[in-house]
Structures are given as C-alpha cells and as structure tokens.
Amino acid sequence: MVVADAIVIGLGAMGSAAAYQLARRGAKVVGIDRFAPPHEHGSSHGDTRITRQAIGEGECYVPLALRAHEIWREIEAATGEELLVQCGGLVLSGARSSHPKKAAFLDRTIAAAERYGIQHEVLSAEEVGARYPQFILEGDERAYFEPGAGFVYPERCIAAQLRLAAQAGAAIRTGEIVTAITPSGTGVRVETDRGVYEAGRAILAAGAWSPGLAGTPLGHMAIHRQVLNWFEAEDPAQYAPERFPVFIWMHGSAAEQSYGFPIPPGSSGLKVASEIYERTLSAPDDIDRNVAEAETALTYDKHVRSHLRGVTGRCLRAKTCLYTLSPDSRFVIDAHPGNDRLTIVSACSGHGFKHSAAIGEAVAEQALEGRSGLDLSAFCVPELSGSA
Fold it and tell me: What is the mean pLDDT of residues 127-137?
C-alpha cells in the first residue's frame, strides 16, 4: 500500500492543476489517471480552448479566470512553453436572437467586465465588420470585445503542469483505473486495478468518470457528446491570431450558438463548433468517436457557410469530446457528503478549462491549509453539504 498526503484522481484540466499545486507546496502527491494525459478521451483536448476574463455564465467565475491567466503566465516562465494567446475575444448577439438565456449572456458579460474593471469595448455590427471583415454579419448584431481574451493550448497546459508536478516529487500513475474510493482511518482509501493508496486528502477530478466514482452526489450529472470541426480556410493568413479573435456567437431567430478560434501557427483549419445536448450518454465509454459527414455538414450549414468568409465546407479533421453538466451548468467543487476529506471537482459543464489553473490552486490550498484566497462557495449543489 502507498501512503501519501494527497491523491488526485483524474489528471486532465482540473486534476493536473491540482497535482501541480499540491506538489509545489511540498505535499507528497499521487496522481492517477486511467489514460495517459494529455489524451483525447475526455474533455481536455482539441488543440485550443477559449479563455475569457469577463464571464457571462456568472460573476462568481471572474476571479477564477483572472487568477488562471496569472498562473498560465507563471507556468510559461517556469517551462518556456507558450500556453496562453491573448488574441482578443468577441461575444456577438443578433437582435433576432430571441432566446432569453442567450440574449442575456452578452449583457451579463458586459456587466462582469464593468464590475471587475476588465478592459473591453461594446461594438456595433458596423464596427465589428470594419475590424474583422471575416465575419458575415446581418447588421443588427451587438458585440462585446475583450482584448485580454483568447485561447489556451489545453494539451500543453496539462503536460506542463504534470511535468512540473513530477519535478516537485509527485508520483504520476497513468494507465491505472480507480475502482473504489472509501473513507479510511487516515482520510481516504483509493483502490485501483494495480494497488491500494491511502492519503489524508483526495481530489476527484475525473470529469465524465467522476459520477461513477462519486456515486449519489453526482447522480444528477448529464454526459453529452460534443463535436469539434476544423474547416479549410481559402487564405489561412486571414484567420491567424494576429488578424482574428476567438468568438462566441448567438445568431438567428432560434438563437443558435457557435464558437470558434483563429488558426494557430503550425495548425490547419478553422476550428468551429456548437453545443449539442439532444442525447445524454449513460456512461462516458458509450461515446461514438466517429464523426459522421452529416454532422459536419450541419455545422457548416448552420454556423460557417453564411457567417465566415473564405471558409469552405471541406473538413480537414473532426473530433469528439465530452461535456459533463450539472442541472444549472455550474461547477461542483465541494466535499463529498460521505467523506469530507474527499473533494469533488466536477462538473466543468463545458466551460471549465479557462478556470482550471486557478481551481487547482484553490483546492490545493484548501486541502493543505484549510482555506483559499478564492471563494468556491458558489459551486456546491443541494446533494452536497458544506463547501470545499
């Protein structure tokens, strides 16, 4: 049996950050993942992830996003890796986007920026078109522009944090499946297909696999398959980060929503996706990894053909990923009701990576010091008692 100060279960966005932050504080850490992160089986891949500082999902996320940007820069300095590209970000909403939740997202983003003093502009369709002629606009759009927004490289972020964690003494166990998590006399007992571990604290950050390990407290979570597409740009230079921002766009009378990225150096294809919730998976391993041509064609017809200039219907590649959603789309970061020494860090609800570096730091501080400088009290659910 291996005894440690802390065990981290799942080493994706949240878990790699937690393992790094625990190890750099001198804790004896064991990190366990059933795969070999960074990998393409969960929610933390796909070359790029949008990062924003003013968060339309709720102002409680803003301190996390701000701190995460600081940590990405700290890790860049420590590793020499480029992790964060601040190419600017647009949130666009057309006047015909009548869905109340979608329409309010833009206003909440602006309000969050104003409250926290985040540099931004509110632009008309004419101003957006003059600045970014790549967009095909209806003319009734209103937009929020944040120069400090952009994207992170998720695979690089995970690899860098795991590398730093290992350098600080963490034991990283990959290809090892956790089969049980139970209370023990010392705190938490973790059983895997290879052995047994005990620690004073454990952090469960296994994404779509967390509900199966946590049991009832995460029984209300829904797992959804998402599709990412990279479309051919006739002139890729027009979509380089120096010329094109990340974007979130609510458009059409049904308030369809898409999001997209510039083409990073060394990459190919313009990444565009939407959020799909029609089907719920009973388990993460039930996902169909094949992307049908009809799925890609639907994305192109709805979100690219009439919205982005010089982007063809030729899909250079397509991938799937998993969203694990709580009913209100908030995160869950709380103590397990059956063991207050086990902290659950899930679900990301499709918008977690931008915050992950800060969440990893906060749960590490709480595990080792009993408190954190960041307030996580908003991220509990009725099934969970207390706050991590």
Answer: 98
